[in-house]
Each structure stands twice: as structure tokens, then as C-alpha cells.
Amino acid sequence: MSNPGASDTTPIHSITQLAELLAQGCKPRDAWRIGTEHEKFGFVRPEATVGADAPQAGKAAYATPPYAPQGIETLLRNLHKSEPDDWTSVLDDGRIIGLKGQGEAAGAAISLEPAGQFELSGAPLRTLHDTAEELSNHFDAVRPLARKLGLGFAPLGFHPTATRADQPWMPKTRYGIMRDYMPKVGTMGLDMMQRTCTVQVNLDFGSEQDMVRKMQVSMALQPVATALFANSPFVEGKPNNFLSNRARVWTDTDNARSGMPACVFEKDFSFERYVDWALDVPMYFIMREGRMHNVAGRSFRAWLNGERQDGLEGFTPTLGDFEDHLTTAFPDVRLKQFLEMRGADAGSPEMMMALPALWTGLLYDDSALEAAWELVRARPWEDYVKLRELVPMMGLDTPWGEGTVRDLAAHMLSISMDGLQNRDMVDEQSQTSEWVYLAPLTALAAGAPTQAEHWLERYYGPWMGDASRIFLESEI
């Protein structure tokens, strides 16, 4: 979740002005980049709980670390101290809530999800090889500092053992607003905030027409990514019959701001149509003079039209307000000045790399994008919406036409493979092409178990029903 800024104080005069704001994201092909974001759950390592001098003495093994003391706050500060030239602190009411990259880390950020899920928002990079190096460097930086605190990190889609009450809250003003508002609009919004982790990739577009095609293709195929990356089969220590409980949670979080908006698949979809949809997403907050004002549930459209609403009196809507507002919309593919693919569970480092590889191959090569569009347009939009409802439980075995989603995934991967081969981005050191990062997915399409199915095999086999074993086995 992005940190709000409301930096552009230009007053809004028209919807066209907002569409033009999105259109500023159009870039020439040679400026297209890949930005990968991933989240992971912190946990207390077992050996750190034993003995008076242990860093987590008295804590329960595998518990979620608090913000402070000896928790997430300390880790952030230690990361800053260890690499002072690469990071500056991000504060909320004087408390450190993240790090902003500078120097060699320019364009990257480290932030906290509501229960302390640790997120790397990667810099916009030219190749997948650069992304792999960035991820490796991040793990290498975090791992020793976390171990000194007695902590580990597990990239999983839904917390496998904790109840909602077990989870802490990070001191971010935005999350306080969401915490109060979520139960009013869905049954699982707090679960989304406190107990889910994702991996996503942010990709560019060259024009409005290019944006439309990429948005429609990626929105329709997002449920296939959910099936491929399913990695959350446990809830409070037990299987709950879902392979992606994270995706299930999103089916009733806040449907006014999430899901697969119908406007994306309409013939006249455009920057302006997306703005029109976003204006009816209920607001969370506005920023003024560094202070966040709670306006949860208010209408941005009504505010823009000059209608009186509690908490907005005397404030004029600005472009910065709308930019912040866009970060509070959670469709499966989010449009800002780039596209965010949001359908996957967090997973292993190999799967973290497979996610950007999949979408880069599909969307960054013209022939691959056209082939993906032909694949998508063969079925009506409603079929993909139904698929979104089914894949959290059935995964790749979800029926699709005369076969299953596994067949659809195989077709999708073949197109992505072609797209990456056409990009022909070869790593100078290893002399490997970007398509190598698709290997975990090609195995899945050929019948290998998903991450969720692998963990279920472990649970019913050598773990003997102890889901907490997943933490050390999945630790980065």
C-alpha cells in the first residue's frame, strides 16, 4: 500500500484533467520498466525464545513480531543504519513506517502492511535479470539483521496459524482509518489487511490504446495467475479447503473498490472511463499540511461537484488528492500511471520471479500481446468473473471449457515464453534469457503441484498436522 502524499496542489476542474493525469504514464517502448513488489510475514524463530538472553525471550515461537520493542521498528532502523546511503526514513507522526530508496536504491521502497508484513516495492528496472538481483540483494540485507532480532520471514499468501486477534497493528494513520471502515463494507477486510501477502508486478504502457489492450488481457487472465500462484491453504493452523485463501478474502473485502470492474471490458474503455469508475470508489482520507483527515465513505464525485460532505468542508479537490485516492482502489489490475498485476499470493523467491516474468512476456511484446488478446476474446467477460470466484478453491483444476484452468495456463505460458524470447534480454554474466524465470510455472502447467498443494502434502505427511512447520520451510 502506497504512502499518501497529495503533493500536487493543482485544483481539479474536469474529469478530462484526471484522464490526462493517467495519460502522463504513456512511455516509449525503450522506457518501459518492470517493478516488482512482494510482501512476507515476520515470525519469531524458535531458538530466539529460549533463555534469558534470547532476543525474543518469553515470546511464543512463530508469533508475529510487534512493531516495538525488538520488532519491526528496530529492523527498519537497523536497515537504515546498515545502508545509510541507500535509504531515508519514512515517518508517520514521528514513527518510522518505511524506507525510501536513494542512491543505488533510488526508485525502491520498503514499507509495512497493517500487521507488519514487510514489503519491498522494487525500483523500475529494465530486465528480469535486474529484478532477480534486486530481490537477492534485499534478502541478503534483511536476513542477517532479522536473525539478530530472532526473526524470520515467510512469503505466504495468508497467515497459516495466527488469528486476527493475534496480529499487531502498525502505527500508520491510514491503517487506522481502514481498520474502522472495513467492517462496514465487507466481512473479510480486516483479514485482507492483517493476514494476507501478495507479489505483484508493475508494468508500463505506450498509449491509451496500448493501456486498454494490456488492461483487458491482464484483468481477464488474473484468475489464472491466482491459480498458478496459490499459496495459502491454511487458516489458524488447519486446511480450510481453499488453495488461495488470500484470493477468497478478496471476494468480500470491499466490492465497491475491488474485483474486476465491468467498465474495463466495455468497448469504450479509456483513461476517462477508469477515472469515471474511480470517482465512485468511496474515499478513505485526504492529506493537508502533512495531516491525514478521515473522510472514509465520502464520495469523490460529490466533492468534485461541490456538494457538502462532512469532513470535506472548506477543502478543494486537487490532483494530489486524486492520486492518493487511486491508491485506495483495489481492482485485480490497478491503473495509475502504470498497471499493477494484483492477483497472486506471495510465494517462494522462484515464484516471486515467475510472476513478473509471466506478465512481462505477455504484455511487453506486440505479437505476444496480440496472441493473448485472441485467447481472451474467445470467451465473454462474465466467464472470467465466474472463474475468479472458483479458482480460490479449485486452483488449476477449475473447469474451463472442455478442460481445466491448467490448460488455459499452459496456453498463457506458451505465449509468455514467446514474448520473452522475442525480447531477447540476455544476462551478461550467466548468458541466460529471461524465459528461464518461467520454469516453475511450466512445471505447474505440466502437472506439478502448486505451492499450496505442496504444503498440504507436507501437512498430511511428515508434518503430521502441524502447520507451524511451514514457517522454517518457507523462510527466505
TrEMBL record:
Going by the UniProt record, its keywords in alphabetical order are: ATP-binding, Disulfide bond, Glutathione biosynthesis, Ligase, Nucleotide-binding, Transit peptide
Under which name does UniProt file this protein?
Glutamate--cysteine ligase
Q: Where does this protein act, in terms of pathway?
A: Sulfur metabolism; glutathione biosynthesis; glutathione from L-cysteine and L-glutamate: step 1/2
Which NCBIfam families did the record assign?
Answer: glu_cys_lig_pln (TIGR01436)
This entry's Gene Ontology molecular function terms read: ATP binding; glutamate-cysteine ligase activity
Reactions mediated catalytically: L-cysteine + L-glutamate + ATP = gamma-L-glutamyl-L-cysteine + ADP + phosphate + H(+)
Summarizing the function annotation, the protein's role is: Catalyzes the synthesis of gamma-glutamylcysteine (gamma-GC).
Task: Tell me how this protein assembles.
Answer: Homodimer or monomer when oxidized or reduced, respectively.
> What organism is this sequence from?
Acetobacter lovaniensis
